[in-house]
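Report of the visiting student (M.T.), summer placement. My assignment was to run the structure pipeline on a short list of targets and document each run. The first record concerns Nitrate/nitrite transporter.
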Amino acid sequence: MSWIDHWEPEKPEFWESRGKRIARKNLAFSILAENLGFSVWVLMSIVVVSLGSVGFAFSVGQQFWLLIVPNLVGAALRVPYTFAVPRFGGRLWTTISAGLLLIPCAMLTYAVSTPGTPYWFFLFTSAAMGLGGGNFSSSMANISFFYPEGKKGLALGLNAAGGNLGVAITQLVVPIVITIGTGIHLAYAALIWMPFIVVATACAWFFMDSLTQAKPDGQSYKLALSNPHTWVMSFLYIGTFGSFIGFSFAFPSLIKISFVDYKGWVALAFLGALIGSVARPLGGWLADRIGGAKVTLGTFVGLGLGTVGVILSVDLRNFALFFGSFIALFVLAGVGNGSTYRMIPAIFRTQSDDDKSAKRQAAAVVGIAGAIGAAGGVLVNLVFKFSLEGASKSLTPALTAFLVFYGLCVGTTWWFYLRRNVFAERPSLAYAGV
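After the run finished, the structure tokens were exported:
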């Protein structure tokens, strides 16, 4: 087992002579495995659009459940996946979690290749895809230990963005791959990932490392759970990552359902996830320089304005405004993802005199906030489902609910981290980079 006992990234001599090289190596292979996790996690978002073309006539409600279930399972797995890192080590757990992605790919290949496959099997297949959603928390918690505080924002942003790009890659590649030859071949949507999963699994085993200090104990989780900042940041992460992943799952279907004449544009749905993923490290970078809370507040204001644009586009039946507003939502959610995650280690560094304890608590919060944020994606798709099945059969009720929620996020960010006397009440936060 490649365990490293001595790790002091805050010391410049150690970082330059040894730490930087090892950290970058682990970051690279972590990104590869996490990218494939996201690719498999959102696979149903594209497959569901083409199920009718190959003989599986599911209702709008049934289709949205196929989107909700992997999101729900992925969210639920994020906490145990975070515990798996201290139990098995980052190297072994990355190997295991990457290898598990072969299961949903095999299930999807069988489901779409077998005529008359029952709906319940598609639901189980969607649930298995949730295995890819858990990878994020274990990867982020693991990488957070490798980098010094001053470089953590960009590193975590790159790690998360590399994973998030899996959404865009799936939504770009799968529509092309399944149309190779004559007709629609949905089995290709699963088969294409299998060789890459094998490669990522082997790379994690042979090239990654595990840090002895990356061991959040039970006490760290108890302290994190009792800290109000854990729940504040989890709430804000619902607004950023919950928006990103929820919109990523729903965007292709929303185009097809709401603008039938423009359903060919489903092939360009990947642009939202692509631009949002690329924007994530920008959020971490900005947070490192001007403060995570300021960046986060700005993104929530922007998310509210983008939501207004989508509402207007639905009322005016203007597809260009609809598509452009959604792209803006993805960008802002991506920036917010980076800034909120940068705030977590900064805040918890002020909560303890023990640097190692603070890092362990922050790692615990990464798992907790990651799980709750991913659950926000479930809520996004549930709201879309009920809105489209309701009396109006329109997106407007769902979008109005999102607008109200973003307003609450603006108020929460300001109240806890930006109002004039907040630093007087908790002066340590003034030095937390928030």
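The chain has a mean pLDDT of 89. Residues 416 and 422 are 7 Å apart (CA to CA). I thank the supervising group for their guidance throughout the placement.
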